[in-house]
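## retry 2 of 3
previous attempt timed out at serialization; input unchanged, resubmitting
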Amino acid sequence: MMHDKAAEYIGIDAERKRGLMNYYNENCARFVKPSRRYLIKDGDNWCAMFTSVIANMYGLSPDQFPYEVSVGEQVKLARQMGIYTANMELAKPDDLIIFDWQGVNGWPDHVGFIKEIKNGAITTIEGNYKDTVGGRIIAMNSKFINGVIRYRDWE
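## retry succeeded, writing output
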């Protein structure tokens, strides 16, 4: 599962993070539409980059995955692809969970993988979590969850 691949990077240091950034620039950026194409660099937020790298390592094509470094743009692409939903009842492991830290404006701020859903709580694996790869447990009905990008539709 993709979240298992993502878990291999939990606790990475700055050198391994740069390796992921280089991987994105060399293997994933080409899948971003030319008007949005951006090479990630030190100091950038990198949660969407992390999900793109893991999806690429997992073998997903740009027809299956919304490759991007911007969470907002990733969600726009997912909506166009018909794989985004705000209905958390449809969430499954390996889906991307989308966060809105303001909890009110609907603008996606952060993204990670869903590892597990159990007893109304979601366990995640996220890049750019305290400047490494980490995770959290969050209530499924949290006001900070914007929605999910659904993996099972990418297959």
